[in-house]
Amino acid sequence: MNLTADEDALSKRFENVGLGENAVENTVSAVEGYLKESAKVGEEQIKSFTDQGRAVLMQVFPQLGIKTGGADATSEEAGQVVMKGEKKEPVWVEDVRAWKAGLEVSAAAQPVRDLSEFMENEAKL
């Protein structure tokens, strides 16, 4: 589909799209409305585009931490973006040397193969 987007019209469509429980359907319907009214694209192309877009968004949104309204979404979690990982509290460092001295030492690197495997026992001429 060769289409030039009107950024103003498209951004107006996305102003009210939330990332809540129906994030995928809201996004698809906003794009569908833009394609019908502003871009004047045919129904067949719109259906093809929205079907492909829905499939992609169903995979992308969970990877970004956005709930897509599946079985695990609850009403309290709707509209919240869930970030993976643990939030760490910032540490105020006044004495850098003392702070570095208190850090835990990591284990040294271990070779995958023993060095004796690479040694040649034969005499070199």
What would you note in describing this structure?
This protein is mainly alpha-helical. It has a domain at 1-83. It has 4 helices and no strands. It has helices at 7-14, 23-37, 43-63, 96-101. The longest helix has 21 residues, at 43-63. It is elongated, with a radius of gyration of 27 Å. Residues 71-79 have low confidence and may be disordered.
What layout of secondary structure does this protein have?
Elements: H1 7-14, H2 23-37, H3 43-63, H4 96-101
Helix pairs in contact: 1-2, 2-3
Measured between the Cα atoms of the first and last residue, the distance is 70 Å
In helices, the fraction of residues equals 40-55%
Q: Report the biggest beta sheet as strand number plus sense, adding barrel if it closes.
A: none
Q: What's the β-strand tally?
A: 0
Global Rg: 27 Å
Number of helices: 4
Q: Based on Cα principal axes, name the global outline.
A: elongated
Quickly give the structural class: mainly alpha
Q: What share of residues are in beta strands?
A: under 5%
Mean pLDDT: 79
Order of helices and strands: HHHH
Stretches with pLDDT under 50, minimum 5 residues = 71-79
